[in-house]
Design goal:
Elements (H helix, E strand, L loop, with lengths): L5 E3 L11 H14 L6 E9 L8 E7 L5 E7 L1
Parallel strand pairs: 1-2
Antiparallel strand pairs: 2-3, 3-4
Length: 76
């Protein structure tokens, strides 16, 4: 997966200059954790914890070449 195929929803997530390093870190992690068949990814929730996963994680949707959802993952 290439970094240009990773989007953030909402698109202004981590857009401030002070937070751009967090966005770059997330992009690197998404690339590292992407399933082999994934060609794009959408970060749908930035760093957080949840009742289903107490770890600090980001929620990412991975899609195939036909834009079909492969999986929704918590990346840490």
């Amino acid at each position: 997966m290439h970094a240009k195929n990773i989007t953030f929803e909402p698109s202004n997530m981590y857009s401030r200059k002070a937070r751009i390093h967090k966005k770059v870190g997330i992009i690197k992690l998404v690339i590292k954790k992407a399933p082999a068949s994934a060609v794009s990814a959408t970060v749908v929730n930035g760093w957080h914890t949840s009742s289903s996963d107490g770890r600090l994680h980001c929620t990412v949707n991975f899609d195939d070449a036909s834009e079909n959802l492969i999986s929704r993952e918590h990346i840490v």
